[in-house]
Amino acid sequence: MTRARPHERPIQRFRRGAVAFPCNALPGRQLHRFNAAWQRKLSVFKRYASPPFWSADALIDHDMRRLYEIYLPVREFLHDLRRLALFFLPHPSWLPRVLRDPHCDRERQIMKRPPSLPDLWRILPVTLAGKVTYHEDELPVLFCALADPPAFGTDFGRYPRQKAELRKRFGTGGKYGLRVLDVACGTGQGTYELGKLLSEATGCPPGIIGVTREPLEAWMAANRRLPHRPDAASRFQRTATHGLTEFVAGDIGELPFAPRAFDLIVANGIVGGPYWNQRWQILQFLRQCHGLLKPRGVVTVTNRFHEGRRNTLERLLGESPPEGWCRTEAGGAFWFELR
Question: How confident is the model at residue 263 (pLDDT cuts 50, 70, 90)?
Answer without folding.
Answer: very high
